[in-house]
Amino acid sequence: MVVIKHITEMQAWANQARAGAKRIGFVPTMGYLHEGHLSLVRVAKAQSDAVVASIFVNPLQFGPAEDLARYPRDFDRDRAMLVKEGVDVVFYPEAAEMYPTDFTTLVQVSKLTETLCGRSRPGHFQGVTTVVAKLFTAVKPHLAVFGSKDAQQALVIKRMARDLNFDIEIIIAPTIRESDGLALSSRNSFLKPLERQQAATLFRALRHAEELIALGERLPQKVINAISDMIVRETSGAIDYVALVDVNTLQDVKEIRGQILIALAVFFGKTRLIDNILVQAP
Ligand code: AMP
Predict the structure, then answer these.
(1) At what angle do helices 220-234 and 193-214 cross, to 10 degrees?
(2) 37 in catalytic set
(3) Which of 9, 87, 100, 117 has its CA 20 to 30 A from that of 2?
(4) DSSP annotation of 21
């Protein structure tokens, strides 16, 4: 496995792979890897001839009051995990390589970024789409894999790729969870033992909502209340949002029918956790 730190070098590698008719699969990450990231690597590997993973904690997608400085990092551990998965290249640029001082171009997907996490994290998705666009032109992949754990992000990137004609297949892979249901996340490492225990309630609340819908509940507010009540009752977490939205527009649904996304964000102290499930109303 090679570690590439410069964009021109990454592009040269990609050009050579493409000249050899190799299909390049790409998994962008912010590092501090876990089984969720590795599951994306395996999806990429199954559908390509060469896999590139990137590790870049993107300053552009963090708000001024957010956790950029304390975001967990361990490159040596990440590198060892990626070697084990048979990854061909780790693209590991410095912030100054990605954003020279006179950097002035931003990529903005509208509408889809104005709800859910976009409402509580202004500028976040602009940071995400800008960095992913830059990573795409550095790595030149044929396909890129994203996790449905970040459902809004995956949808926003799909839309960006379509709108800007990136000739890249965007694959969305399932959420990997701990045995108690908590979605794996690099940020779980910040949780205190009691918070970690309580955090399992997030997924249980989503499953409970799914059950209510299966039993015939059709009013979104009733389901939102049931989820919120459970989180308030069983955890010390502070709810950022709980929402039932259309899977294509991410707008709140007025009535539960067809396929909907149930999404939530909850703060445990300074640590913001998100989760979601897709539900098919009978
Ligand atoms: P991050 O390093 O948190 O930016 O995540 C990098 C990629 O891994 C994104 O596409 C995430 O959606 C995905 N990811 C994060 N957590 C999980 C998980 N528990 N299961 C599957 N994919 C995940």
Answers:
(1) 160
(2) yes
(3) 100
(4) T
Going 157 to 162 to 164 to 167, the CA torsion angle's sign is: positive
One of 37, 124, 142, 208 is an active-site residue; which one?
37
The residue assigned the tokens 């590092």 is: 31
Q: How far apart are CA 33 and CA 37, in angstroms?
A: 6
Render pLDDT for 1-44 as a digit per residue (tens, 0 to 9): 999 999 999 999 999 999 999 999 999 999 999 999 999 999 99
What does the alpha-carbon distance between residue 187 and residue 267 come to, in Å, rounded to a whole number?
11
pLDDT in tens, 53-94: 999 999 999 999 999 999 999 999 999 999 999 999 999 999
What's the 218 CA to ligand 1 centre distance in angstroms? Answer: 31
CA 35, CA 46: separation in Å to the nearest integer?
A: 16
Positive or negative torsion for Cα 62, 65, 66, 68: positive
Report residues whose beta carbon is within 6 angstroms of any ligand 1 atom. 29-30, 36-37, 39-40, 146-147, 149-150, 175-176, 183-186
Helix extents (H) in the chain: 7-19, 35-46, 75-84, 95-98, 116-120, 124-139, 151-163, 193-214, 220-234
Nearest CA to ligand 1 atom 10: 146
CA angle 69, 63, 236 (to 5 degrees): 80
